[in-house]
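Re: the 379-residue chain
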Amino acid sequence: MHPLRQQYLTKAKRVVLKLGSAVLTAPDGLNLPLIQRLVGEIGRLISGEREFILVSSGAIAAGCRKLGLTSRPTGIPQAQAVAAAGQSALILTYEEAFAEFGLKVAQILLTHDDLESRHRFLNARNTLFTLLQWQVVPIINENDTVATDELKFGDNDNLAALICNLVGADLLILLTDIEGLFDRDPREYPDARLLKLVETINAGVEKAAGKKAGALGRGGMLSKVQAAKKAGAAGLPTLIANGLTPGILGRIFAAEEVGTLFLPQAQKLTSRQYWLAYNVTPKGAILVDYGAREALIQRHKSLLPAGILEVFGGFGKGAAVHLMDPDGKPFAVGLTNYTAREIGRIKGRQSQEIAQALGGPQDYDEVIHRDNLVIFPEV
C-alpha cells in the first residue's frame, strides 16, 4: 500500500465516479450484469458513509438497443434522438439496480451553458447538495438531446472534472476498459508499462495518453488525463482504473495499487477561480507584452492598459477573455471592465490617460482586476 494512496483514497468521502461507455455497454446495448455489480459495490461503500455522484455514459448505447439500431448514428439529429430514447432506459436501469440497496437516484442533464452561467452553476450546486443530504445518488449526463457544439462539454471525462468543482469532491474516479495510463498504448505495444502514480501532468504524460477513442465513447485516454489535470487544479486526485475488474471500487478504497493515481497540484484554485478558468467560454482575447505577463504571473498584479498590445473580438463589458503573450500563447483568463472597442482606444496608455481617451471619467483603472483573473495552472 503506497502511503499517498492511503492518504488520498481511504479518506475520500465525496466521490465523483465517471462510468464510460466501454464499461457500461455490451455489443447489444447496456451491460446489465456489470452495472448491477458496480451498483452493488457503490451501495456497500455508501453504507460506509461515502457519497457518490455518478457521471454516466450509455444513453446512446441504450437507445440503439431500444430502437433496434446496429451502430451508433453519425448524424447529429439522429444521435440526439437516439440519446433521448436511451436516457430513460439508462436511468431506469440505475433506478432498479440501486433500489435493491434501498437507495434512490436522481437524473440531472446538463449542457455547458448550465455551468457557464454563475447563477445556474450555483443553483445546480444547491440541488446536488440537497440530493446528497437526502442520500439520493445523483446520476449526471450531458444533455445530448439539446446540446449544440457551442454548448457541449466535449465528453463525459471533462464533464466529470467540472462536476468535481461543482460539488466540492474529494476524489475523481474514471472507470474505463483498461488498467490505467500506460507509458504507451498497450493495444499496440505488448510491453507497455502501467504508470501507477503520476505526480505532474506534463507534455510527456499527455503524449503517452495518445488520442485514440473507443467505438462507443467520445473520449480516449487523453481526455481522461486532461480531466485529471482539471481535477488537480481543483485540489483533488484522480484515479483511472478498469471498471471491468470485479471488486474494483473496494480495492480502490482499500488503497490497493490498482489503476493510475494522479496527484493534485500544490496550489489549488478556489471554486470561483476554477469556474472562471474552465466553465466560462472566452469571448475574445487580449495580447499583452512580456512585462505585463510577468507582472500578472509573478507579482499577481491587475492588467493595466499600458501593457496591452492588441485586442481581438467584439466583446462587451464583463466578458471573459483570454490573455495571450507576444508568442500568441494563452496564459490566463479574466473578466474585463471594458469593451473590446474601448480597450482598442486605451491600449498602451497610462491609467491616468483613460478618461481622456474615452471622453470622460471611468470607474476602473484596471482593464482586468486581479480578483477577476486566473492564471492557468500549467503556466
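Residues 282-375 form a domain with the Archaeosine Trna-guanine Transglycosylase; Chain: A, domain 4 fold (CATH 2.30.130.10).
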